[in-house]
Amino acid sequence: MQRFITIRDIARELNISVATVSRAMRDTYDVSRKTREKVLEKAVQMNYKPNFNAIGLAQRNTRNIGVILPAITHYYFAAVINGIQEVAYQEHFNIVLYVTNDSAQREREIIRNLSLTSFDGLLVSISSPSDACQHFEEIIHKGLPVVFFDRVPGDIVSSKVVQDDFNGAFEAVEHLIRNGYSRIAHITGPENLELTAKRRAGYMAALSRYDIPFEETLVVHSGFTQHCGEQDMYRLLQAAIPPDAVFAVNDRKALGAMVALKNKKIGIGSEIGIVGFTNDPACDLVSPSLTTMAEPAFEIGTTSCELLLKHIRKKYFQPREITLPGTLIKRASSIR
């Protein structure tokens, strides 16, 4: 079996102390430039690979980041994870993934059973209601850095990275209005999530801008799944005056609404326009193709991880909230 090269081997080759090699690797002030260059050159020659676990123990760092999120099967969260992994890999951090399946109870159990000494920080997209996140406040008060992304709690003082939910929703609804739709419904997520509230607020602001009366009956709250979107659409179609367009909180719900319209043989676009939010790859594959507000999922992942690393490395780093803009992708589902 091949033996791993250690700093002792480098020290023996150069006839210097192990401590000097260690300080040279860390570029401390008390090692000369010439000595450091010799150490690094010899490390390359001998194919030395740092043992990051050992380094972490010595520095009381684990080099582990916990990621807690509602799902991994959806395009959006898969893209976020790719962004997180890109930064973590470059900085030699490991990712430990926890999936709540959109269960607030499971989320609380994960936090309760979490070994805080096993992680340098957490990246979290919440499943709990925004006003019921005491479990996260407790670990933040214990000193563990936490950065929230996408679905974030409103009342916790911590760093957050989100897409521009309000303006994204406003632009999506404005697009429908400019395409001649006037009775626009909104199928959205649970009422107690900040993401849901901001997208609903953007929807209402667009209606107000164009002097279209807001009707509470045209807003349907439920889950985030395709099945929920389909059931929401059936409910809206039972109204005395059905909507002529729908803005969905995400693409899965928009696709569910399209299934319902197809089952009822109602023309998508020609009779009822549909706009989603995410830009899932399925948007281009369905017929008609789905207009959507594209979220910067990969960038949310990279930005969240970069922000968490700043918290980890700087003890008194002030919390920051970063909002990234989306882009409206116009397709056939919103054309009359």
TrEMBL record:
Domain of life of the source: Bacteria
Single Gene Ontology MF annotation: DNA binding
Pfam families: LacI, Peripla_BP_3
InterPro entries: HTH_LacI, LacI/GalR-like_sensor, Lambda_DNA-bd_dom_sf, Peripla_BP_I
UniProt keyword annotations, A-Z: DNA-binding, Transcription, Transcription regulation
Domain HTH lacI-type: 5-59
SMART domains: HTH_LACI (SM00354)
Stored PANTHER family: HTH-TYPE TRANSCRIPTIONAL REGULATOR GALS, LACI-RELATED TRANSCRIPTIONAL REPRESSOR
Identification of the protein by name: LacI family DNA-binding transcriptional regulator
